[in-house]
Design goal:
This protein is α/β, with parallel strands linked by helices. The protein has 2 domains: 229 residues, Rossmann fold; 73 residues. Strands 6-10-11-3-12-13 form a 6-stranded mixed beta sheet, sandwiched between helices. Strands 2-1-4-5 form a 4-stranded antiparallel beta sheet, covered by helices on one side. The protein is globular. The chain starts with 8 loop residues before the first strand and ends in a 7-residue tail after the last helix. The relative contact order is 0.16.
Length: 319
């Protein structure tokens, strides 16, 4: 994906909390905020499903990725007369950049009655996964990132890919600046970091560091693609927000990565605006999710200048 193929507009009907929703004017780096349960994450899910789904099997795998990103321990039951994952498939319509995306896959008739090979395989693998019979289910997702996607084995695979891309020195430079970590490596199948003279297991550090590392890895490993950062500030100390946004603006531009992120933190929003102004990056938009007087979800977009004015006037930007 290059800039010409970035998601610029989204229209969705009858999907989760969206009855009828449209947004236009999306940029390279998009920060989404609003009250709880207003549709921040759902907007990213719509884009992710549309981009990652080519057939019914992909569709179920993508749903599983999304579910595990929210709660890695969630249990659910798949039955023919229910909507697994609390998704409502009937008559769902998704349009990205004015192009309809896989509407037939979202049809309930298609999903539940047609004996498609991909559908049957997807149902079987997901059922096995939740019954504990197939923990090796291939879910190498590097796009939808949350605190719950922190998995040591997967992170080790990502670091190996970074080394193959010859980006190891650049990654270590970022870690040194942020955490005074000299080096990160995979040793005896364990992710380890070197601070002074000795290597230490990454698992001995807090989730905030691992979450930030996940974000950096995603930026490197999704060249010309899109990444989705759910609750981007989760576990990360506010003193690191500026450094985080500097990394995101720099790497997303260098690697042609489109970024969607959600937050409910005022400090994170302020940092987003402060850093984008500092680096003179105008390819950004701030999205406030809200409801109109009829209870319909809508999006209010602000460019960098409008966001700065709103912050200076102490307007409530989080819904």
């Amino acid at each position: 994906m290059d800039k010409a193929n970035f998601i610029k507009s989204v229209t969705v009907e009858r999907f989760k909390c969206f009855d009828s929703f449209a947004i236009d004017g999306l940029k390279r780096v998009n920060l989404i905020s609003g009250k709880n349960n207003i549709g921040k994450t759902a907007l990213m899910e719509v884009c992710y499903l549309a981009q990652s789904t080519q057939n019914s099997r992909d569709f179920f795998h993508s749903l599983l990725v999304l579910e595990l990103s929210r709660n890695p321990l969630v249990e659910f039951e798949i039955v023919e007369d229910s909507n697994s994952f609390d998704f409502k498939f009937e008559d769902t319509k998704i349009v990205i950049n004015k192009i309809p995306k896989y509407i037939d896959i979202f049809s309930k008739d298609n999903l539940y009655t047609k004996p498609e090979k991909d559908y049957n395989r997807g149902i079987k693998e997901i059922t096995q996964f939740y019954n504990g019979k197939n923990r090796a289910l291939n879910l190498k997702n590097k796009q939808f990132i949350s605190m719950n996607t922190i998995r040591a084995k997967f992170m080790a695979e990502c670091i190996d890919e970074i080394k193959l891309q010859d980006n190891e020195d650049a990654l270590n430079a970022i870690l040194k600046e942020l955490f005074n970590i000299k080096k990160i490596d995979v040793i005896k199948n364990q992710v380890m970091v070197k601070k002074e003279k000795d290597f230490i297991l990454l698992n001995e550090f807090g989730d905030g560091i691992k979450h930030l590392l996940n974000i950096v890895l995603a930026l490197y490993l999704n060249h010309k693609n899109t990444i989705y950062l759910d609750e981007i500030d989760n576990g990360i100390h506010y003193s690191l927000f500026d450094s985080l946004w500097e990394i995101i603006f720099k790497l997303s531009k260098e690697n042609s990565v489109q970024v969607f992120a959600t937050t409910h933190s005022k400090e994170c929003i302020e940092s987003y605006n402060r850093v984008s102004t500092k680096v003179k990056d105008d390819d950004i938009t701030y999205i406030k999710m809200t409801k109109d007087k009829n209870g319909m979800i809508k999006a209010v977009l602000r460019d960098n200048k409008l966001l700065k004015n709103s912050l200076e006037q102490h307007r409530e930007l989080r819904g």
